[in-house]
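Handover notes (outgoing to incoming on-call)

Open items:
1. CNA-B domain-containing protein: sequence verified, structure written out, both below. Nothing else pending on this one.
2. Nothing else urgent.
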Amino acid sequence: MDEKYILESITVNLFEMIDGQKQPVMDDEGNQRSITIKADTDGNWKGTFENLPVYDKDGKDIVYSVEEDEVKGFTTTIVSLANKETAIGEVPDLAIRITNKQAVRNLEVTKSWQDAEGNALDEKYIPESITVNLLANGTKVEGKTLTITKEDDWKGQFENLPIYDKNGQEIVYSVEEVTVPGFTTTISQATEKEAAEGEVPDLAIRITNKQKVRNLEVTKDWQDAEGNALDETYIPESITVNLFEMIDGQKQPVMDDEGNQRSITIKADTDGNWKGTFENLPVYDKDGKDIVYSVEEDEVKGFTTTIVSLANKETAIGEVPDLAIRITNKQAVRNLEVTKDWQDAEGNALDEKYILESITVNLFEMIDGQKQPVMDDEGNQRSITIKADTDGNWKGTFENLPVYDKDGQEIVYSVEEVIVPGFTTHTTGDSQHGFIITNTQQVIAIPVEKHWIGKPAEEVVINLLADGKATDKQITLNATTSWQGEFNNLVKYDSTDGHEINYKVEEVEIDGYTSSITEKGVGYIITNTNTATISIPVEKHWIGEPADSVTINLLADGKQAQELTLNASNNWKAEFNNLPVYNQETGKEITYSIGEVNIDGYTSAITG
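CNA-B domain-containing protein structure tokens:
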């Protein structure tokens, strides 16, 4: 037996049988005879009661016995041995053996695994085994360890443990677990198990390992293409972030108790911050290695995603620091090129003299089926100014346009040119390929008709005036053209300030004609009147005595036109002067005739 459990000495008391009763043997001082026994130099425990009477007063052999003072933690067996051998005729000595058998008990250790909330722990986080050391009165007992495994149903037992130390003090047993990384350990006090009457009860201890956990905070940051805070109109209502862990070098989803991947939904709080937390994440795997966590965001269309692990968050000494990850979504953008094409009315390249210095193009997008202006950060509609480059090309670009809206739908863009007077605008293209804005010059035609009053000239030349100024445009009208013509492809609006040009016509003067111009719709009628005149002389001849005077009437196409008086004073001669040859209304040559006012007593005859 291990000497550490053996007392320094024991006391053995002597008894004898008197009248069938076991009585202590007293010494001369009235004390029970006893001896103290301890180990000799050879480790033997022996002692001797000397000079004991052999017979009582009646000559009967005295029966001796001994009892040991109680030695806690031992059961005692006392056996009388055969008398020791002696010489013939001598009284043989007696011998007794006292055997102390150490009292022992067992200590059962039960292991319990719990997650942070006190529920049964997922087996994937439980190691293959644990090692438990035995402590006696707080001191580790060398050589006393248990290895407990799942195959043991997480139970083990320390057997044959002495109950008392050599001083008779009950030994207080406890255990300690070799540290299992990632768990906090709680060890209950040893409790006595039920035992049969008279038997020493075994002990039981429960070791509870509660998994150490940490939180993983995920912060969401939204940026435009230039790294600035993103306009809220492009930010979705929420995002979903999924949790992963590294297992055997492979990235694996972290599953919940129902077999679904752990995820969190993050949305803006009242302060506009996007944060979410994965809570109660185990710190270590079953091999005691630090679990490496990562996250992935469900795709958010229109964004490139960058995920960065931040420094562990600060914690109190001895506590497991929480983790932090930042997910930055940078908006995916595209550029939208706008090309400008200038054409004349026939689709040919337009003469530069009609082209403006620049144009302005505004940007629109479709929102809920409605065409809406795209606004900049200052609340103004986004627009670009396009002008010719050194090669004469007209191009401009809307840059950094979001590709998708907050619902992940591709944004449909369109453009509109600020009206350029004098041009019709046609836009082709789309958000993916850009737009071409074609400006076709608006032109008008001004018809001109020529009317003649009187004999027409052989031809006339008509000049065009723009805003009262001569142009290089003219047309020639004659009988071959049916006295009609047209000024074609006339620019409607001035390219300098956009005002509508006021076109007029004028005729190159023709001798012998007067000209009048009247509007007819968008064109003009030029009426030329032949200004030729004639004179009709009149002479009065008398046969017989003349009257004092006569009145001569001039008829134009049978209608009274003029009159004159002939008498002796004018030698009975006069003349109708400056008579138009042609009717100013019909243009026909006028037929003139004369008639005399009747004179009583005369007849008249007109010749000529």
